[in-house]
Specification:
With about 475 residues, this protein is mainly alpha-helical. It has two domains: about 425 residues, MFS general substrate transporter like domains (Growth Hormone, Chain: A, Up-down Bundle); about 55 residues. It has 22 helices and no strands.
Length: about 475
């Protein structure tokens, strides 16, 4: 007897979850994996301008952040499986192109293609988790999914440092076989579900406005230090972002099928969770890139040594979120996120106040960096779960895209803050005081995140207001849709 799509899926939930986590890990990995490889890439391609090389990082971050929400909306409207498969295919092809590139600007363009694929696969992968994993397993599945993205971002410099020792091209080659394998398995086991019952086309003009607004905002934040904050280009780009976002909000409140349903923000857990996620993104972006720069420029360490020095943090993310789960599983979402944010900020401040010009890694960096890893392992998966728990099935991809977009924007702003505070493209011994100040700024944003989590203290793990916990009938309806 032939199985239906839902029945096939139900027999392979673990396999599907692994594929989704691997895809999310790769997308997060490529946000930061290039950081330690910029210098080798510049040497190999004959490009010494840091401003030009920085676009290998910035192009990915800008396109990824700008397209997350439109891609999530398309997943909700046309089906999460086809959009996920398309995103994974584009990401894999883009990775292969990057590995074969012989020109910096061709590499930048192919990084944009990578980012388009990542923007499509991230929200739809969470959409598949939320709609395909059985209800009783869903909280833990979301936690694994969230950990994979955070671990990918945190592991980027460590893995990049190791791969660069072979060749900078291996930073991108590593994605190709993994992407192909994930694509084949996902095509076989992922359910072909579509939750939207509407037949109209999503608001294309609204999509263009959100892409323009987010793209202009990230562009201004990234290039502001180079252009000068008071220059016409910087002010004009910020103005474009402001106008585009304002028009987008007005249009979203009026059209029948907006890219972002503003009703999502009536959910208090979703709203405050996104604010906390955004602030932690700023904290994380400042601290991670800042640590890489200090190790390479301030202490003169090699890419591989820097990568290995970064590795204990990502290890603690998985140890805390998975290995120590039984010790913190009884804590409420509010307590865990506040504790995680405090540890992230406190660990960074500890590093900043301990550093000296002479390298003393075990005494000056390792304790604070381990605290950071514990904080990320507690806070990020919990915030994503709390912000996503109350979403209706037809909102899952869009809602998760908003969450991911906030974190990516936070990372970009965190990098911009680091550049503003340090005021240099390279860090030397005399910059220690300014570098320390950047860690205090990161700690301040961690405190903002902790305060934003206070409303979650009264929510616990209960279903959000206005939407009861899913019942057996709801589960049956979801299975009917999947069929």
């Amino acid at each position: 007897m032939t199985k239906t799509g839902a029945e096939r899926h139900q027999s392979h939930p673990a396999v599907l979850l692994v594929v989704l986590c691997v895809a999310t890990f790769m997308s997060g990995l490529d946000v930061f994996i290039v950081n330690v490889g910029l210098h080798p890439i510049g040497e190999a391609l004959g490009e010494r301008s840091l401003a030009d090389l920085s676009w290998i990082l910035n192009a990915y971050a800008i396109v990824f952040a700008a397209l997350l929400v439109p891609a999530g909306r398309l997943g909700d409207r046309y089906g999460v499986k086809p959009v996920f498969l398309l995103g994974l295919a584009l990401f894999t092809v883009g990775s292969l192109g990057c590995a074969l590139s012989g020109d910096v600007w061709l590499l930048v363009g192919l990084r944009c293609l990578q980012a388009v694929g990542a923007a499509a696969l991230v929200p739809t992968s969470l959409g598949l988790v939320l709609t395909a994993v059985p209800l009783e397993r869903r909280p833990r599945a979301i936690q694994f999914w969230a950990i994979s993205g955070s671990l990918g971002a945190a592991a980027g410099p460590a893995l990049g440092g190791l791969l660069v020792e072979v060749s900078w091209r291996w930073i991108f080659v590593v994605n190709v076989p993994i992407g192909i394998a994930a694509l084949v398995v996902a095509a076989l086991v992922a359910p072909d579900s579509r939750h939207s019952t509407e037949t109209g086309t999503p608001d294309l003009l609204g999509g263009a406005l959100v892409v323009t607004g987010i793209g202009a905002l990230t562009l201004a934040m990234v290039e502001g230090p180079t252009w000068a904050w008071g220059s016409g280009r910087t002010v004009g780009t910020f103005a474009v972002a402001l106008v585009a976002v304002a028009l987008f909000l007005v249009r979203s409140a009026r059209v029948k099928e907006p890219v972002i349903d503003l009703a999502l923000f009536r959910n208090r857990a979703f709203t405050w969770g996104n604010l906390a996620n955004f602030a932690l993104g700023i904290c994380f972006g400042t601290q991670l890139l800042g640590l890489v720069l200090w190790l390479q420029e301030g202490w003169g360490w090699s890419a591989v040594r820097t990568g290995l020095a970064i590795a204990p943090g990502p290890v603690m993310v998985s140890v805390t979120a998975i290995g120590l789960r039984r010790f913190h599983a009884g804590l409420s979402d509010g307590i865990k996120t506040i504790l995680g944010a405090v540890l992230m900020g406190g660990g960074g401040v500890l590093i900043g106040t301990s550093l000296t010009v002479q390298p003393h890694y075990a005494a000056e960096i390792l304790p604070g960096w381990l605290m950071e890893g514990v904080g990320v392992g507690l806070a990020i998966p919990t915030i994503i779960r709390a912000a996503s728990a109350g979403l209706a099935p037809h909102q899952t991809s869009t809602g998760s895209a908003v969450v991911q977009m906030g974190r990516q924007l936070g990372n970009v702003i965190g990098v911009a803050i680091l550049v503003i505070v340090v005021r240099s493209s390279t860090i030397i011994a005399g910059d220690l005081d300014r570098f320390t100040l950047s860690w205090w700024w990161a700690g301040a944003f961690a405190l903002v995140a902790a305060l934003a989590c206070l409303p979650l203290l009264t929510r616990g793990n209960e279903a959000p207001r206005g939407r009861p916990k899913e019942t057996a009938q709801d589960m049956k309806s979801t299975q009917d849709i999947n069929r």
